[in-house]
Each structure stands twice: as structure tokens, then as C-alpha cells.
Amino acid sequence: MKTSNHRNSSDIDIIGNACRDYFNHPDEDLKIEVWSDIAETDYIPVHYLFRPYTDMPVLEQKALAECRGKVLDIGAGAGSHALWLQERNIEVTALEISPGACEIMKKRGVKEILQEDFFELPESEKYDTLLLLMNGTGIIGSISRMKKFFEKAKSLLKPGGQILVDSSDLRYLFLQDDGSILINLNDKYYGEVEYRMSYKRQKGRRFPWLFIDDQLLEYHANKNSFSFERIAEGEHFDYLARLIEKD
């Protein structure tokens, strides 16, 4: 019988498989290999997806503190953010496309879980906070999908609701020795990245991921009738923003 290595890459649940392995064998040094078209191959230690609040970056801690009302944790992964909110009696639903990650979240004790693509999520429920962390703008994929993102967000937010989202400005990758920044303005936006994850010799599909600088996010927020507030900055060109639909 053929192994899963021969399955179509679009069928392989890289995040889910890694989460299952770590949940069952937390002492193993497990890593997800991450290829991108913009930088050298990197690795995500799987234990990072299970990190407690004390090991989270300051931007994530700040975002959790700013959550209010009914929260939708978008791209919840192994559920670390949802668990922290849940423990503080904040009503939270964990949204995650990976079936394996959803399985592990349930085992970890996350009460409300939705296995779905954000853009395909039914609009029957409304939320006070949409939470998107670990470069939350990534799910948008490209600048051309900003309008679609904001339209979906509007359909899911209660009146006065907020989006809490983090991202990074990748222009530092184009920094020259003389301090100048060399970016081809005729090419795609420099924060549009293509990724591919691999785990234990299994390769997932390629997918687009968006890093957006704060000024461009503010422009698109205003263009789509949202206000923009930068509420925290990180140490690696990253930031946390609050977006609220204008009256």
C-alpha cells in the first residue's frame, strides 16, 4: 500500500499531523519546514503552536487583553489563544481549517470549534471581536483580496465590533548595505509571499500569504469604511492594529 507521501499535496494536513504528533509525544523535537519564495527555508518548532501565555510575544498578549465580548479566534491552530480566553470566561469560538488541529483543540479542552475557511464561514453568528494573530493578515493572501476580507469581516461583526490583527512590514528584507531599500515597484507588492510547508517528508500545497505594512493596511481599512489604530509595535517590524467599522 502506498504511504501518505504519495497523496496529493492539497490533501495533506501538515499542521494537523504535526499537532497530533506533538500532542501524543510532547518530548520529541518536532519541526515544520517552511519554504518561501522570498527568504531562506525556515522551521517552526511544533511546540510553539502549543505555547502558554507566558511564552507568547508581547503583541499577542496585548491582543488577548484587548479582546471583548464574543470572540472569533481566526486561524486558531492548536488553540493556545482560545484556551487563554476561555479560562478567563470570555466567550470564544476557535476557527481553524485544519481537521487535525481541530481534533487536538478539542482534546486540549477548547469548547467551541469551527472547522472552516474564514471566507466560507456562514454568517449566522455575529462577533464583537475578530482575532487574527501570528501574522493574521496572512489569510487574506494578496492585496487584491483586501475588499473581500473587509466585506466578510463586516458580515461577521456586531455593531461596534473590532478586528484585532497583527502583521509585519517586510521591507527590511530589501535593505541594502548603504541603508537604502531596493524594491521593484513594477513587481507584485513585496509583502505577498508564497509558502509551502513540509513535515516528515510530506509536502503540503503552495499557498499565498500576505504581510502588509501598517500604512497600506490603514489605507485599505479606510477605503473599506474601517478606522485604523496601531495599538502596539513589536521588535521585528511587526505591529498590532485595531480596525473598527465606521458609522
From TrEMBL:
Methyltransferase domain span: 71-161
Organism domain of life: Bacteria
InterPro entries (UniProt xref): Methyltransf_25 (IPR041698), SAM-dependent_MTases_sf (IPR029063)
GO biological process, one term: methylation
Gene3D superfamilies, A to Z: Vaccinia Virus protein VP39 (3.40.50.150)
Name of the protein: SAM-dependent methyltransferase
A single MF term (Gene Ontology): methyltransferase activity
Record key words, sorted: Methyltransferase, Transferase
A Pfam family reported for this protein in Swiss-Prot or TrEMBL: Methyltransf_25
Naturally occurring in which organism (per UniProt): Marinilabilia rubra
